[in-house]
Amino acid sequence: MREGYGEFGLNVLNDECVTFVQSVLNEMAEAMLTCVSKNEGGATRRGNVPQHNNNRGGRRAQRRKLHRDLQKLYNKDRTKCAKMVLEGRWRHLGAPEQQVVVKEQLQDFWLNLFARLSEEDARPGRTLVEEQLWQLQLPIEVDEFKRVVTASNGSSAPGPDGWKLKDLRMFPEQFWVDLFNIWLYIGYLPKVFRMARTVLLPKVDRPEDPGQYRPITISSINIRVFHKILAARCVHWVPLHMAQRAFLPTDGLA
């Protein structure tokens, strides 16, 4: 071995290569977001949606909107829909209600909860599988990508980058497979795709306390597809405990 290229020198060289690849991945991610925004042909993105007058057309338009809202609620939650109809509250469906819990209360409550350090779990862990599962680290294949994208909900809410499933499909399948394999090999995700947004959804019709909200965190659709591929591998190869909830196709998990 040439002098100066000992183990320490190789480690430094490897770290520099990884840092370079990470910077390239970050630049590529930013370029992808710009590409999608330009492809929209000037359409507004990231929640900046033009406002329309819902009262246009008079009572007939209002009745049609009420019918659509009621049908949407029926498809989403039949129990809640039936309760609103029986109680006569369906006529006010979609109408803005006075917010009992103000924004400052929500922010103070959840900020204190999220900023608090988690209690250390001193319980001993157990080894699920004795041997090394190399199957979890194999290169991702196109078929895996196709299965996840096909099963994904095209109308699911976008992350902070504004991407939806249709934006992901703008790029060839092989492009995503190659990119995911780079992420998997390097063990690094671009910064812009690591951002997520958290929204508070009310658990009841008229919440009166910050604790009556449920926090839902939404990440980029690209990361969700990538994680679903890895989660499918875990479910297939790793014998999970019956109490396991993460990495499983459970309600409330994307």
TrEMBL record:
- Where do the segments described as Disordered lie? 40-65
Top-level taxon: Eukaryota
Stated name of the protein? Reverse transcriptase
Lineage of the organism: Eukaryota, Metazoa, Ecdysozoa, Arthropoda, Crustacea
